[in-house]
Specification:
Layout lengths: L2 H4 L6 H4 L28 H13 L29 H8 L6 E6 L5 E4 H6 L2 E10 L3 E10 L1 H7 L8 E10 L2 E8 H4 L5 E3 L1 E2 L2 E2 L9 E3 L12 E7 L12 H5 L9
Parallel strand pairs: 1-11
Antiparallel strand pairs: 1-2, 3-4, 4-8, 5-6, 5-11, 7-10, 8-9
The structure holds the ligand Nc1nc2c(c(=O)[nH]1)N[C@H]1C(S)=C(S)[C@@H](COP(=O)(O)O)O[C@H]1N2 and molybdenum atom (MO).
The site of the ligand Nc1nc2c(c(=O)[nH]1)N[C@H]1C(S)=C(S)[C@@H](COP(=O)(O)O)O[C@H]1N2 has 18 residues, from strand 5.
């Protein structure tokens, strides 16, 4: 456990100064993929109960296990999208992501547009963790990136915000991949925006340039190919209303705590 990094607090505000953009970089309605009426009232009783019980019995800031360099998987396989198909992504990749910006918006006082260089210049956290995919495989990798919590605080997260939504570049048959987490996970010390895997820039199959690592959750919550982060009060108006691509399109649970 990296003690220095775990202490990143808003007292290091200076380090994230300069992220703010003058113009409000708003998340346009184009993110909002068709909302199905059937998805309203999405949280079924059983899932809500699981969520409440898990939150009661697990300490708010309990850490996911961390491993050593010797435990790192020889190959960290890719799952789901391995190369986003859009021309926009192809162009960003061709430019080595110099023009990529991570937009932070929604219920924040100060919308941000963070370049990759800026993101790398923030205080960093490195952690070696195990990724567990519901499809039945796991891999251990070393991830590096800034902790999400201070970025949200710097953006002036509104007290009305209850969820953080991650919008991605990749598209599955007309719907963009997205995911969402609650504020407990958003402010968890191991929740980082990873731009590096095993001391290398994040490979495209693993989500270049930046992906979410939310270590207390299953693999599909770890959104790759991040484009924007949106703070919301409710998930009803996002995608199909269930809080994530797989949640909307299959029976995957929104709360995938491990
Ligand atoms: N944008 C995006 N994020 C995604 C996916 C995806 O297809 N697109 N797949 C998810 C699933 S199911 C898993 S297991 C992990 C896979 O991460 P990896 O490709 O680095 O192994 O990413 C998750 N995040
Ligand atoms: Mo997965």
């Amino acid at each position: 456990m990296n003690r220095a990094n775990s202490r990143i607090e808003m007292s290091r505000r200076g380090a994230i100064g300069g992220l703010a953009v003058g113009s409000g970089l708003l998340l346009a309605g184009c993110d909002r993929v068709a909302t199905t009426k059937a998805a309203k009232g999405a949280f079924q009783g059983a899932e809500t109960l699981t969520y409440r019980v898990s939150r009661l019995i697990t300490a708010r800031d309990a850490l996911a296990p961390q491993f050593t360099g010797a435990d790192i998987s020889r190959v960290f396989r890719s799952n789901g999208t391995a190369m986003p198909g859009s021309p926009e992504y192809a162009q960003l990749l061709a430019g080595n992501f110099a023009d990529w910006r991570l937009h932070v918006g929604g219920l924040v006082a100060r919308p941000l547009a963070i370049s990759l260089d800026r993101l790398k210049a923030l205080p960093q956290r490195t952690q070696i963790t195990r990724h567990d995919c519901v499809e039945g495989w796991s891999a251990i990798g070393q991830w590096t990136g800034p902790v999400l919590g201070p970025i949200l605080q710097f953006a002036g997260l509104s007290s009305a915000a209850r969820y953080i939504v991650f919008h991605c570049y990749d598209d599955f048959g007309g719907a963009t991949y997205y995911e969402s987490i609650d504020l407990i996970d958003a402010f968890h010390p191991q929740t980082i925006l990873a731009w590096s895997l095993n001391n290398q820039p994040l490979p495209v199959p693993n989500g270049a340039p930046v992906r979410l690592r939310v270590e207390r959750q299953l693999g599909y919550k770890h959104a790759k190919y991040l484009r924007a982060i949106e703070a919301v009060a409710s998930l009803d108006q996002i995608g199909g209303g269930k809080g994530g691509f797989w949640e909307d399109s299959s029976d995957y649970a929104w709360f995938a705590g491990i």
